[in-house]
Amino acid sequence: MKRITAWLLAILLSFAFVARVGAQIPESIWLTASTTAYKTGETVLVTVNAASATPIQGFTFQIRYDPECLRPVNASSPIPGMNGLPLPQLTGLVDGSYASTTPQTVNGVLADVRFTALKGCKTSLILESAALAIRNAEGFAAPLVSVLVGERNVSLVIDTEAGVSQVTQPESGSILALDPPAAERGFPGWIIGMLIVLLFGGIGLGAYKFFRIGG
Fold first, then answer.
1. Is 173 left (phi over 0), alpha (psi -120 to 50) or beta?
2. Of 61-65, 76-80, 128-132, 188-192, where does mean pLDDT reach its minimum?
3. Can you say how many angstroms the Cα of residue 80 is from the centroid of all Cα atoms in its chain?
4. What is the pTM of this model?
5. How many angstroms separate the CA atoms of 215 and 211, rounded?
6. pLDDT tens digits, 90-127
7. d(CA 202, CA 200)
8. In Å, what is the CA distance from 178 to each residue of 18, 46, 84, 111, 192?
9. Ramachandran category for residue 44: left, alpha or beta (phi over 0 → left; psi -120 to 50 → alpha)
10. How far apart are CA 126 and CA 65, in angstroms?
11. pLDDT one-digit tens code per residue, 37-70
């Protein structure tokens, strides 16, 4: 009887320990999408989410995308007091950063990120990196340690059929433009190839005349 009672007590203590651990909310960030099927020309919407028991004063995220399939438009954060910080963008990588002068509690959406579907394709959006920021004792911004980055990948299927503009909810909060850099303009490949052919042709013709005169 005593042995059974000891076993029952041990099991109850184990359940109580697990419940306490599960009740703790770790700091985490993850990427989601309400839908993954779109048509060409439609707005693709993904959401950067976070849960933190510690109030934050900023966050950053980088999302990798295929520039042949998608073009970034903007990001918006519904968190009060969070202001977008414009950063130079790189082709194929969205770089978003927000900051607040006062600590904010987060448990849900950090930012909605919008893209335009350029053509029919199968592609993915990948949360390359993400961080939550706090103000340390010296008054400087510092990343919150031990933040778990959860779901990083959202797979998308874009149909070649042209879509109709969706009726979406109005953007709220601080809007951050994410325009990619303008494509560099250079000479078309066929012009470069023709110039090379003409160059070598001129060299050959000059050599022919030189040796003919010399002969």
1. left
2. 188-192
3. 22
4. 0.73
5. 6
6. 999 999 999 999 999 999 999 999 999 999 999 999 99
7. 5
8. 43, 14, 11, 13, 33
9. beta
10. 7
11. 999 999 999 999 999 999 999 999 999 999 999 9
Q: What is the 3-state secondary structure (H, E, C) of 189-211?
A: HHHHHHHHHHHHHHHHHHHHHHH
Residue 133, token pair as written in the block: 């920021």
Structure tokens at 186: 């250079």
Evaluate if residue 187 carries a pLDDT over 90: no
Place of tokens 């007091």: 81
Tokens 């029952």: give the residue: 8
Q: Following DSSP, what letter does each residue of 65-87 receive, concatenated?
A: --TTTEEEEEEEE-STT-EE---
The DSSP-derived string for 75-126 is EEE-STT-EE-----BTTEEEEEEEEEEEE--EEEEEEEEEEE-SSEEEEEE
Domains of the chain, by residue range, sit at 25-189
- Beta bridge partner(s), residue 129: 62
Residue 197 and residue 191: Cα distance in Å, rounded?
Answer: 10
Token pair 């934050």 is found at 56
What fold does the segment set 25-189 form as a domain? Immunoglobulin-like (2.60.40)
Rounded to an integer, what distance in angstroms lies between the CA atom of residue 152 and that of residue 30?
A: 6
